[in-house]
Amino acid sequence: MAERDTSRDIDQAASEWTARLDRGPLSPRTEAAFQAWLDGDPRRKGAMLRAQAVSMMSESAQALGPDFDPASFAEPRRPRFSRRQALAWTGGALATASLVALGVGTAAAGTVISTERGEIRMAPLKDGSTVLLNTDSRIRVRYDEGQRFVTLLRGEAYFAVARDETRPFVVEVNGRRLRTTQAGFRVRKLDQDPVDLLVNQGRVAVSTPNLGGAPLVVTANTRLALSDAGHRLAEHPRPIAPEAVTRDLAWREGKLAFEGETVRQAAAAFARYSDTRIEINDPALAREPVTGLFAANDPVGFSRAVARVFDARLEQAGDRVILARKTQPSAAAQ
């Protein structure tokens, strides 16, 4: 009985195939060997997606030689949000995403900070806290002697809150208040989804008007989906693994990390960052799982990787990237 390849063996082979593909088209014989290898173990497609994601972010896939270790790229490194690092970030660039100089608007109700589609922005606040805004997001900031108050109007924001026991830091979203004296946490408010809170440092107390005023306390490495008029949910903080927290927060470095999400779910994630839309014309292809770390602003590169791994056809028509099985008629020709 043949010995089953280890995950490291598969990752190594995937990096070698990626380097080979980067050098040019495969001969019919080599293409057949590649497809046989790809179909021989269900783990290999995920390994190829990881290796090709690394290839797209490196200067050349030929650099992925025998010493390349895909494990180094399996998870994005989680940055620590010290005050010094946060301020240093304002003068640098986040990988593969646009980090622009701070631009704010002042309204009577407070200072408004926002981002456009595909933009990520770090904003230092005057108490030493920082907020990192994801694509197409908007907040309003109001500070007074009694509290530090931020309203998330739309989108997604990560707050690194400086300690102040005398002035709580409060984030209001959809009428709910998230309160802390020091924490690192992400809040996401998208039209189609319930508000989602993820805490990765410290503790955050969440107001619960339906529970007699007793707040829910969400601790590090815990997630909570908030109920509202459009999403009736049973609110239970859910512990998640640290590596899952890291994947969820990969956008802070301009990346999208997938671990078993479907191609359709990944396409929806890319749509938040670019006007280019990924269309999948085959339901089975749309359900295929994807694994890897990709540049958030490169839906075309992601689609090329999917097309190669799942033996699909890729076409571009204006701002659409169309993925289909090779046996299907061309969508652009219809």
Largest β-sheet summary:
5 strands, mixed, barrel
Helicity, as a percent range: 10-25%
Radius of gyration: 22 Å
> Segments where pLDDT lies below 50 for 5+ residues?
58-103
- Listing every helix as H and every strand as E from the N terminus to the C terminus, the arrangement reads HHHHEEEEEEEEEEEEEEHEHEHEHEE
Strand content: 25-35%
CATH hierarchy class name of the largest domain:
Mainly Beta
Task: Work out the count of structural domains.
Answer: 3
Which sequence of strands runs across the widest sheet? 7-8-9-11-10
pLDDT averaged residue by residue: 81
N→C terminal distance? 49 Å
Classify the fold: give the CATH topology of the largest domain. Answer: Jelly Rolls
Q: Can you tag this structure with a few keywords?
A:
elongated, alpha+beta, Phage tail protein beta-alpha-beta fold, five-stranded mixed barrel, three-stranded mixed β-sheet, 24% helix, 334 residues, single chain, 19 strands, Jelly Rolls, 8 helices
